[in-house]
């Protein structure tokens, strides 16, 4: 008990010192953006909601304005709730807001090299260039063959086990990602690389949110042995560190061993064709390929959970909105029929499907608060002061649920993205679903291609229905979303996929 009090005293002392330091080191005496009242020392530590923080932030902005701030143990968190404020404060100074807040937990777990938390600097810039290059729209065309194979596999799985769409979807996104990254063929949804990735990202993203861990708010505490901050915390450090090593090294080891011991030159070819050619031409040496591997590995940890969550949001929206599904089926029957696989060439002729995809991005965002940025110098804007190192959050949910731009924002309505002639209305605000400025998600074209193909293929061949119980009654869905730190998606719910034309689908399987 005594040690607990000593420890609490130590935290209070460190927090006081942090506050004094923050006050003395201020370069401007303009106020921070307004926000809810703060308690001494701990500030707003107890005001940050555990879930649905984006809604609370949007609500506060009705009282305090579009830009609000919170203080947690002397750390400043600024939340920007509108497009115009985000443009004026961040986008006009993109270079200043390229950094990420210092994340002590990542240092403790050996993760500072991850693309997501890496702060700006030459290494980040170089990596970002490589990533952007390998995931730009034209590069996506190289991955189409792999994507088509994976989506066919998904259809076969759904046909044989129609009420396990969650597992099949995870397998599809994981298989596609791991195939183009390593030439690795995922066997099923229990695959160890997919599972490791999932567990890692699930734990890690929870640590990124502001106020989630005391060591990020008061980094000095990270110098203590993790056990002093509780057994639970010590276990988290150990597990995340171990999983990170697994996620980075295991697939890499798998390919390297395969290349060195197998006669299987195909795998090397996958790597060289898929990634190397993009930057270095076909003469790329294996060592260089290995380096790219490491980038890629870190990159794809960000890909699987996000894409799966958005795909499952789509399935949920279809079960809940049969009238939307019926309209989508009508368009698909008219443009594609049931005798062939849909392809990306069909995209311009499928505006309703395009609108469904746009509404999925908007309706329940996969990353409602994105990932925090931080300014690398003090910023004064609109009469407010934002200190260097503050955590800056762009509330994408608030922007995409603005009732003026999107009337009845909580209603799932693809028609809002179509003109009266049925054409897609471009909506640059939807990009906020993928972040903003120089750190905007480099995987957005990849996500776009993967999710769009998923939507169009599943709907061409299946009707997504509520599941029935033994008496033939529909099982009601209790809609529940789970927020895993920055990423969010629906929890499994009962539903089943019924083939619209089984014989036609089997004919397609035979031909492919
Ligand atoms: C529905 C799917 C996805 C959503 C909603 C999403 C969303 C986001 C958001 C909001 C950010 C933070 C951007 C910012 O800081 O402003 C981000 C960063 C990132 N995303 Fe995605 N993402 C998705 C899919 C992907 C995919 C498929 C990949 C990889 C192929 C990917 C790779 C990354 C990486 C590497 C970063 C860190 C970028 C940096 O810090 O420079 N994401 N994503």
Automatic annotation (TrEMBL):
Protein name: Cytochrome P450
Organism for this UniProt entry: Vararia minispora EC-137
């Amino acid at each position: 008990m005594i040690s607990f009090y000593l420890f609490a005293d130590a935290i209070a002392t460190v927090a006081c010192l942090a506050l004094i330091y923050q006050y003395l080191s201020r370069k401007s005496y303009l106020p921070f953006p307004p926000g809810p009242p703060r308690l001494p020392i701990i500030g707003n530590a107890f005001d940050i909601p555990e879930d649905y923080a984006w809604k609370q932030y949007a609500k506060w902005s009705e009282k305090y304005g579009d830009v609000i701030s919170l203080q947690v143990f002397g750390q400043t968190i600024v939340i920007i709730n509108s497009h115009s404020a985000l443009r004026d404060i961040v986008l006009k100074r993109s270079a200043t807001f390229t950094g990420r807040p210092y994340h002590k937990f990542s240092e403790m777990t050996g993760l500072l090299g991850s693309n997501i938390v890496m702060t700006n600097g030459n290494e980040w810039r170089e990596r970002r260039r490589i990533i952007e290059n390998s995931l730009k729209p034209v590069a996506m065309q190289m991955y189409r063959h792999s994507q088509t194979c994976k989506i066919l596999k998904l259809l076969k799985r759904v046909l044989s086990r129609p009420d396990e769409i969650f597992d099949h979807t995870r397998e599809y996104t994981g298989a596609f990602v791991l195939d183009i990254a390593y030439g690795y063929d995922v066997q099923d949804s229990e695959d160890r690389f997919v599972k490791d990735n999932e567990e890692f990202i699930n734990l890690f993203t929870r640590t990124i949110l502001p106020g989630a861990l005391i060591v990020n708010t008061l980094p000095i505490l990270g110098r203590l042995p993790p056990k002093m901050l509780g057994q639970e915390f010590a276990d988290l450090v150990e597990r995340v560190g171990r999983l990170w090593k697994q996620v980075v090294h295991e697939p890499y080891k798998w390919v390297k061993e395969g290349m060195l011991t197998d006669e299987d030159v195909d795998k090397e070819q996958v790597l060289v064709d898929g990634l190397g050619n993009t930057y270095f031409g076909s003469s790329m040496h294996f060592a260089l390929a290995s380096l790219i591997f490491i980038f890629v590995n870190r990159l794809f940890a960000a890909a699987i959970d996000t894409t799966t969550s958005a795909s499952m949001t789509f399935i949920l929206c279809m079960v809940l909105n049969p009238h939307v599904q019926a309209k989508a089926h009508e368009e698909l029957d008219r443009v594609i029929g049931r005798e062939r696989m849909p392809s990306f060439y069909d995209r311009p002729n499928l505006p309703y499907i395009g609108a469904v995809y746009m509404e999925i991005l908007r309706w329940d965002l996969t990353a409602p608060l994105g990932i925090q940025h931080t300014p690398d110098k003090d910023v004064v804007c609109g009469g407010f002061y934002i200190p260097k190192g503050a955590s800056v959050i762009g509330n994408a949910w608030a922007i995409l649920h603005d009732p003026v731009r999107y009337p009845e924002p909580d209603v799932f309505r693809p028609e809002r993205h179509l003109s009266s002639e049925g054409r897609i209305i471009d909506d640059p605000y939807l990009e906020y679903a993928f972040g903003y400025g120089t750190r905007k998600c480099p995987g957005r074209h990849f996500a776009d291609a993967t999710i769009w193909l998923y939507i169009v293929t599943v709907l061409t061949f299946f009707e997504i229905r509520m599941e029935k119980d033994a008496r033939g009654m529909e099982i009601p869905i209790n809609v529940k979303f789970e927020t895993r730190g920055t990423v969010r998606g629906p929890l499994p719910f009962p539903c089943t996929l019924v083939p619209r034309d089984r014989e036609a689908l089997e004919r397609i399987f035979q031909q492919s």
